[in-house]
Specification:
The chain contains 20 helices and no strands. The protein is an all-alpha fold. The protein starts with a helix and ends with a helix.
């Protein structure tokens, strides 16, 4: 029996539609499968790309096996865990000495200074030939007297804890200033500079010196400056200067950069900590006397026999300042006045005035080079000019400080981090990368001479020359960015003229309509 014509056509149409729908479904499924496969391949490529980029950026800087370890997601937490282990090890000797009642380096001096100051006793001797046991400004004694209320053990633990926090803060602030983004690069720049200055870090724990804290304060001040918070930055610089005086030289940079609020904040902080805060423990008359005695005995004490209050040590190999090195090399002064007053390393024999002239000349040259490297208008092309300038400022402070013993150079943590980050970010095989690698390697090599031949190397200023190399490399790198500044400005002016021309054309067209 034949089907009606319309029924057959409807059935064939239904089959055709079903076949078409089936084909569409199969096509959609295949398309989705292809899309998922492409997305998976793209995701794998995206996951692999950072690794390849990281290995390429670290090529020739770190061994490939180390780079693979640094690429691990837990590499950075592991590095900080390693730092905490070192902190614990470094903290054990002073704590054991404290519990056993043994001599405990400068910790004892800090504790008893705070104890006497808090009870109104004199901390600076008035006798003409007596040396100051405590050489820091009276504002530092105020802080020690406040911490003294924690008791002897609490006082010790507080100083060690503050030093440890300052260590971590200095590392993190240094990394933040460089602008590194790749995890492997961050891990490398976190670990290597610390290993380079770890002997100086150990000294801060062993002696109880606050130089790591000063570095953290100065780096935090730089971070506030980058954010435009000048007043907060000035307060931090003022606190650092109130602890150990020599960071006050950073005001020169603030004035040059026209950071008026920051400069005023430094002055206001020092006035408060030197003249107002001591009133909690001293009378106004005692406050003025303390500041006057310290200024005459420390700031203004400089002659042929002594700098400040350490006549046997001020010109010895332990002092790596520019002043001390030029006296050792240009004048017949003991290179180790504490143990061997007859050992000298001078190359010529000038008198005291002649050496001062040489010091003034070299300091002027370093200062002029800084001004040459730090133009009034920074390059808009360079991403880290402020970081480089602050590193140069810190190194100038180290070199110009009359007393710069070894542990002072824990501040090189920041310039070394900047140098390593610059080498990492420079294109592979480029001239910049080669220069930064050489500068970093030579500086670290000079510093390691203190382990092999400590007295001789330090007598001839190995750590100071390492600082000068990093300083000069940073300065020349800033100078080399001057050409992009001009190109940027000419390009900017060309684009402005083009935009103005286009605007005029539009106005003419509108007028004609």
């Amino acid at each position: 029996m034949r089907e009606p014509h319309g029924s057959a056509r409807r059935r064939r149409g239904t089959v055709w539609r079903n076949d078409k729908e089936q084909l569409d479904v199969e096509t959609s499924i295949q398309s989705n499968a292809d899309r998922r496969s492409a997305d998976s391949m793209s995701a794998q490529a995206n996951r692999a790309q950072p690794t390849n980029d990281a290995r390429e950026s670290l090529a020739g800087i770190a061994p490939i096996h180390l780079v693979r370890l640094l690429e691990h997601p837990r590499a950075i937490p592991s590095i900080y865990a390693f730092f905490i282990i070192l902190m614990t090890i470094f903290a054990i000797p002073p704590l054991v000495n404290d519990w056993l009642g043994l001599l405990n380096k400068d910790y004892d001096l800090w504790y008893w200074t705070g104890w006497f100051y808090g009870r109104g006793a004199a901390i600076y001797p008035t006798e003409k030939y007596r040396l100051f046991p405590f050489m820091y400004p009276p504002s530092c004694a105020v802080m020690l007297a406040t911490a003294n209320r924690l008791g002897r053990t609490g006082f010790m633990l507080a100083l060690i804890l503050i030093n440890s926090i300052a260590w971590i803060a200095s590392v993190r602030l240094s990394i933040a200033a460089t602008g590194l983004r790749k995890p492997a690069a961050i891990a490398l720049a976190t670990l290597v500079p610390v290993l380079c200055v770890v002997p100086f870090i150990h000294d801060t724990y062993l002696l109880g010196q606050p130089n790591l804290l000063l570095l953290a304060l100065m780096l935090a001040a730089a971070a506030w400056l980058r954010r435009g918070r000048e007043f907060k930055a000035g307060i931090l610089v003022g606190i650092a200067a109130a602890i150990k005086a020599f960071p006050i030289m950073a005001v020169g940079y603030l004035l040059y950069r026209r950071k008026w609020k920051a400069s005023a904040a430094v002055g206001a902080t020092l006035v408060f900590l030197l003249l107002i805060a001591p009133l909690a423990y001293r009378t106004p008359r005692q406050t003025i006397d303390d500041l006057s005695l310290w200024t005459r005995g420390m700031v203004l004490k400089y002659d042929s026999g002594t700098i400040a209050q350490r006549p046997e040590r001020c010109y010895s190999f332990k002092n790596q300042s520019l002043i001390a090195l030029e006296h050792r090399l240009l004048r017949r002064v003991p290179a180790d006045g504490e143990t061997d007053p007859f050992w000298r390393v001078n190359l010529v024999n000038l008198d005291f005035n002649g050496v001062n002239a040489a010091i003034l000349l070299s300091a002027t040259m370093l200062g002029l080079f800084s001004l040459r490297a730090m133009p009034i208008f920074r390059s808009p092309v360079d991403r880290r000019p402020a970081a480089a300038e602050w590193g140069m400022t810190l190194m100038l402070i180290l070199m110009f400080s009359p007393l710069s013993f070894n542990y002072f150079f824990v501040w090189l943590l920041y310039p070394l981090t900047y140098a390593l980050a610059s080498a990492i970010e420079a294109p592979v095989g480029s001239r910049d990368r080669t220069i930064w690698k050489i500068a970093f390697g030579v500086a670290v090599g000079l510093m390691t001479l203190s382990i092999a031949i400590p007295k001789i190397a330090q007598a001839y200023g190995n750590v100071l020359f390492a600082t000068i190399i990093l300083f000069a490399t940073t300065g020349f790198d800033l100078i080399s960015k001057r050409r992009p500044v001009r190109e940027f400005r000419s390009q900017e002016s060309t684009e402005t003229e083009a935009n103005a021309t286009n605007a005029n054309d539009v106005q003419i067209a509108k007028a004609s309509l």
